[in-house]
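Hi R.,

As promised on Friday, here is the backbone we talked about, encoded as structure tokens. Could you run it through your design pipeline when you get a chance and send me back a sequence?
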């Protein structure tokens, strides 16, 4: 979350300097600012990966068996989830503050679905950052430039689709399709498979008698 806040600070400073130098705030400058913010976020994600990689090596040297107690996949999941949560908080907090009034949404002909759409977009953004974190860390581990490019491209596409608002049908639908596809990709990257899902769903609890019999057959350890 701290690294995402660093990217937000850098993007804000870049936006402030750009507006001061150009003296305007048109749509083209806003698009460039959004693209720069996305690239800064991904740059900070890479910095987070490098730092966690160094920390993982340090933990491995301190452990008795030479292994780190935290796996790279766990670090990727936690990092992506942190990026998503802090990003969602910043994207929804002002909207929640405005929802208390005194204005009424849609009174001047605007869409009355502004708040519910913002909630769904925030949810998709949290999930996407979690999925991107898993894919990004795996691509860095494998040094797979294609995976990194697809993550950055998907992030840019998601950010660009939000400029279609308040035409919510054109933005919300594609973003959720992208979220589903990215989630499946992250699931596969993390080692998941359809066979494992079926095994998980068909798992049954062992009967008590069988568990007791299995425990009784265990050979006690030698003293």
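Update: got your reply. Pasting your designed sequence below so it's all in one thread:
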């Amino acid at each position: 979350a701290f690294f995402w806040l660093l990217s937000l600070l850098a993007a804000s400073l870049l936006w402030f300097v750009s507006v001061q130098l150009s003296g305007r705030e048109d749509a083209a400058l806003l698009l460039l600012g959004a693209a720069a913010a996305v690239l800064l976020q991904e740059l900070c994600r890479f910095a987070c990966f490098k730092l966690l990689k160094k920390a993982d090596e340090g933990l491995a040297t301190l452990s008795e068996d030479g292994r780190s107690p935290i796996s790279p996949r766990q670090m990727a999941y936690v990092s992506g989830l942190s990026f998503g949560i802090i990003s969602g908080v910043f994207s929804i907090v002002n909207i929640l503050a405005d929802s208390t009034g005194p204005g009424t949404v849609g009174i001047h002909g605007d869409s009355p679905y502004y708040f519910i759409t913002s909630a769904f977009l925030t949810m998709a953004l949290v999930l996407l950052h979690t999925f991107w974190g898993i894919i990004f860390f795996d691509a860095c581990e494998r040094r797979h430039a294609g995976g990194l490019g697809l993550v950055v491209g998907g992030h840019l596409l998601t950010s660009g689709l939000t400029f279609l608002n308040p035409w919510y049908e054109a933005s919300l639908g594609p973003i959720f399709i992208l979220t589903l596809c990215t989630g499946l990709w992250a699931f596969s990257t993390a080692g998941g498979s359809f066979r494992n899902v079926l095994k998980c769903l068909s798992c049954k609890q062992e009967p008590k008698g069988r568990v007791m019999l299995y425990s009784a057959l265990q050979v006690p350890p030698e003293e």
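One thing I noticed while checking it: The chain has a mean pLDDT of 83.

Thanks again,
M.
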